[in-house]
Amino acid sequence: MLRRIEQFLALDWRHKVLFLRAWFLMGRVRWALARKPFKALTSELKLHRVPAELPPLPAGSREIARSVGWAVRTASKFTPWQSTCLVQVLAAQRLLKNQGIAGVFYLGATNSAREDETPAFLAHAWLKCDGEFITGEPGHERYTVVSSFSW
């Protein structure tokens, strides 16, 4: 634990602030997901029935998007609640929107068999900016995109 605190303290102030903002925002998103319908949380986003792609970002915005991805992925490992892919995507989306950075998040689904061979419906969410993964990359290829949202 002491090592992790030392690692945090070694970060520059911008990364510390971004990490803390991501951590608290994931808590708010997790709380909101438990109390509000998904549609209410995405009402201000543009829904696409087919996968959407946006134009390229300027270099500075791309670096900020990467930093947001780092902060969300890293902070998710330290939350006392479950920070699922959807929680991470919605938190990253809000952080990016606050920075004026456009992106797209995808919802995918697949039918899969569990270990006991009973069918299971699985879902996954991931977010991309300028074609680059910000959150949710691992395993996304196993899912068929059901919808995407841009801002």
Describe the structure.
With 151 residues, the chain is an alpha+beta fold. A hairpin with a 5-residue loop joins strand 2 and strand 3 (119-129). The model has no long low-confidence stretch (mean pLDDT 92). The N and C termini lie far apart (38 Å). It has one domain. Helix 2 (13-35) packs across helix 4 (59-76), helix 2 (13-35) crosses helix 5 (85-98) and helix 4 (59-76) packs antiparallel against helix 5. It is built from five helices and five strands; from the N terminus they run αααβααββββ. The protein has a five-stranded antiparallel sheet.
Secondary-structure map:
Blueprint lengths: L1 H9 L2 H23 L2 H4 L4 E3 L10 H18 L8 H14 L5 E10 L5 E11 L2 E4 L8 E7 L1
Antiparallel strand pairs: 1-5, 2-3, 2-5, 3-4
Give the termini separation: 38 Å
User: How many DSSP E strands?
Assistant: 5
Provide the domain count.
1
Whole-number radius of gyration?
A: 16 Å
Number of helices: 5
Shape: globular
Helix proportion of residues, in percent? 40-55%
Largest sheet properties: 5 strands, antiparallel
Order of strands, main sheet, comes to 1-5-2-3-4
Order of helices and strands: HHHEHHEEEE
Unreliable stretches covering 5 or more consecutive residues = none
Portion of residues in beta strands equals 15-25%
The helix-and-strand class reads alpha+beta
